[in-house]
Amino acid sequence: MSATGGSSHGSPSIDLVRRPDASMTLLREVTETPLDPAYAEVAARRGHTHARRSTRGAERVAVGALAVALGAGLVTAITALRAPTDVRDRARDLLVGQVQERSSLQDSLTAQNAELGFEISDLSSRALAGSDPALVEELEVLAVVSGTAPVTGPAYAITLSDSAQATQEPGAHPEEQVVAVDVQIVVNALRAGGAEAITVNGTRVSGSGAIRGAGQAVLIDLVPVTSPYEVLAIGDVERIRRSVTGSSAAAHLSVLRDRYRIGVTSGSREEVTMPAARTSAPRFAVPVGPAADDDTTDTTDGPDAPPAPPGAGRTTT
Questions:
Q1: Helices 180-192 and 237-245 sit at what angle, rounded to 10 degrees?
Q2: Of 76, 235, 283, 313, which has fewest CB within 10 angstroms of its CB?
Q3: What DSSP letter does each residue of 43-54 carry, written as one string?
């Protein structure tokens, strides 16, 4: 609005310029703002709500895409983890092959050692036969008792075997498996009955060896054996049988058979041949002689004395 002109009394005149539609204010408001403010506010609110719904829809789509991506990644990871199964199988086959190779080498060396031991014993017997026959006879008896010489003769046999369930599922029925204590009880009973030589699955049991358990495995002089365990005892078969039947071992075997379904069978063999036991170099024993007599006064271990092996002096069974 502007003011121009003056008045009749000398004061400056003011000319008011009015809009042509100044008298139509209501009509102008109706034409310029046809929408009620309340409706405008509601319309704006609806637009904002629609925008938020659009945003939520986009977020849901993004979450769904992320879930699909995570699922695909999980499947890929599982597939990648299962894929090296072939690698593990090859590594296992390699280890099994090495174990079999070492076992074959051990068997070969054991047989070679037995042949050399037999040759040494034969040469010693021939060398002493002419000078001291009594000493030769004594050495032969000691060789049989100590297990350093192969022997042959009639034998009494007791066989222990895992139950059928333990054979099929060893982990589900460990109590139905034969353990080292069971074999020890049988061997002790046979020895108490007069057995002169004993083997477990072909491995000679001697005074320098031991029957031990390593987990579910049974070691005979550090040689692993598995079920069935055939224990052979050379000697007076009938005497050994009566001794075992009347001993506490018979009750133990009955418990194994009736409660744990472990197979227990017995019988006799007309003639069996047992190999010599594995021998090791003596660490403490020295030949008796003049030099040994001079050393009897020194009972302390010197700086060069060999260390005592683990389990030295331990009873075999």
A1: 120
A2: 313
A3: HHHHHHHHHHHH
**DSSP strand pairing (229-234 vs 151-161):** antiparallel
CA–CA separation, 145 and 138 (whole Å): 11
The pLDDT of residue 297: 44
Total residues found in the chain within this entry? 317
Dihedral, 192, 198, 203, 205 alpha carbons, nearest 10: 40
pLDDT tens for 137-176 read 888 888 888 887 889 999 999 999 999 888 888 778 888 9
DSSP structural state of residue 12? P
**282 backbone dihedrals φ, ψ, rounded to 5°:** -65, 140
Find the DSSP H helices in the chain.
25-32, 37-82, 85-129, 133-146, 164-168, 180-192, 237-245, 248-258, 290-294
For the chain, the distance separating the N- and C-terminal CA atoms, rounded to the nearest angstrom, is 126
Residue in 224, 157, 153, 152 with CA at minimum distance from that of residue 187: 157
Tokens of 197: 């030589």
Burial state string for 24-52 with b = 16 or more CB within 10 A and e = fewer than 16: eeeeeeeeeeeeeeeeeeeeeeeeeeeee
pLDDT in tens, 225-274: 888 999 999 999 999 999 999 999 999 999 999 999 999 999 999 999 99
Percent of the chain's residues with pLDDT above 70: 81
- Strands across the sheet containing 203-205: 203-205, 197-200, 229-234, 151-161, 263-274
The CB density around residue 253, as the number of other CB atoms within 10 Å, is 22
User: How many angstroms separate the most distant Cα atoms in the chain?
Assistant: 177
235 neighbors 193 (Cβ within 8 angstroms): yes
